[in-house]
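User: For my dataset I need records formatted as: sequence, then structure tokens, nothing else. Please produce one.
Assistant:
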Amino acid sequence: MGFGDLIYGVYERRLAHELDHDRMPHHVGAIVDGNRRWAKDAGTNLSEGYAAGAAKVDEFLGWCHDLGVGTVTFWVLSTDNLQRPDDELASILGAVEALVDRLADDGRWRLTLMGSLELLPAESVIRLKEAAGRTADFTTMRVNICVGYGGRQELTDAIRSLLLEKSAEGRTLDDVAHTLEVDDIAEHLYTKGQPDPDLVIRTSGEQRLSGFLLWQSVHSEFYFSDVLWPAFRKVDLLRAFRSYAARQRRFGR
């Protein structure tokens, strides 16, 4: 172990010791950005960059589990990403499929796929659903994988689902419009029945949500890290949790 590793270990332990465990996030959202830039900086190809990013998810989940987090939501593929060149999209999907398979085999995480899966290749959807289905009875920690996800698309899907449900009940559009409540829409979101994220982390230095959990993040705290996702370390997560614990959450009040 080099001197730098020793200093890093000391710093990590100090951060962990200083955390206020009574003020920890229970649901963490993660926009895992920077895989392409990491691959370029490392002088490797995109496939290896996306594979490195997928491998980081395993580490991140382990850290969150050890810190008592109950739910983690990852955004790994957006609806905008689906417009990328075929070879790049194939690299992303391959990494995501391998990731979901691996997480399912772990035996701890209850996986939920969130997004417009009908926009993905049929063979990818079959593989992803089969893997997630194997985790239905796992209870240690819920892990949401946002794939083919867009915030506007989620709200569109929620409204469509709501209207179809009310129509099936014999309700008129005018009746629905006059009785619609916030909770009616929330019941049709991808995250139905789950708590909203307390903390949303985005890596790679970008300081925007890009549509991630638009409805659910209204009262979330945000933490933007300059670190590219494949290089994200436990100390970076601990810094994010330290920042979160120091904030006074007002929930719009």
